Amino acid sequence: MDSADVSSMASIGDGSSVWHLAQVRENARTGTHCIIGRGAYIGAGVVMGDNCKVQNYALVYEPARLADGVFIGPAVVLTNDTYPRAINADGSLKSADDWEPVGVAIERGASIGARATCVAPVTIGAWATVAAGAVVVKDVPAYGLVAGVPARRIGWVGESGVPLTRGDDDSTWICPATGDRFTEHNETLTKEAA
Questions:
Q1: Among 25, 79, 152, 181, which is 20 to 30 Å from 59 by CA?
Q2: Which parts of the chain register pLDDT below 70?
Q3: DSSP state of 125
């Protein structure tokens, strides 16, 4: 789009689209078939895999890493400063040399709901879902469903995004959409072989 601000040093993958008023900074890289929505911000050096969607007005600050198939909902924020300040202790304006950016890593197929905030450094596991409005301050396990402020795990989701239901015993979970079966052990969920 003509109104998007895409750095000449950014790399946009084949079949990807960048919508109105979005900004993609230098050295950012997207995979193929990604969508960057209206007014979204993709920071310098951010890396996105294939088939990612970053919805309108989401802020993805460097050095975030998004694996294939990640969904970032509208107005989501991925932070990059654990101890943010505009000035140093001596009152001088903080510059890029005065702090070390830390990132949010989001693994394959995970989804971050509208207006959620992920406070770096955290990792969101594969196929996990962060509920709308949640504030994530610690890692989310693969297939975890988290909600709240601060976000806590409230269940499990399958690769379809549908919450899992209990199986025959306390350690077995089943996806009602696909029939996939999972085993829970020590707060970790493992998909059973088909």
A1: 152
A2: 1
A3: P
pLDDT for 170: 86
CATH of 1-157, one of 3.40.50.300, 3.30.465.10, 3.10.180.10, 2.160.10.10: 2.160.10.10
* Selection from 50, 103, 109, 45 nearest residue 77 by Cα: 103
Long-range residue pairs from 41-44, CB within 8 A, at least 24 positions apart, any chain: 42/10, 43/80
- CA dist 104 and 55 (Å) reads 17
Peptide bond into 121 cis (omega under 30): yes
- Contact yes or no for 101/85 (Cβ under 8 A): no
At 162-173, the pLDDT tens digits run: 999 999 888 999
Which pLDDT belongs to residue 1?
Answer: 61
The encoded tokens of residue 33 equal: 């078939």
Residue count of the chain, please give it: 194
d(CA 180, CA 194): 8
Structural domain boundaries of the chain?
A: 1-157, 165-194
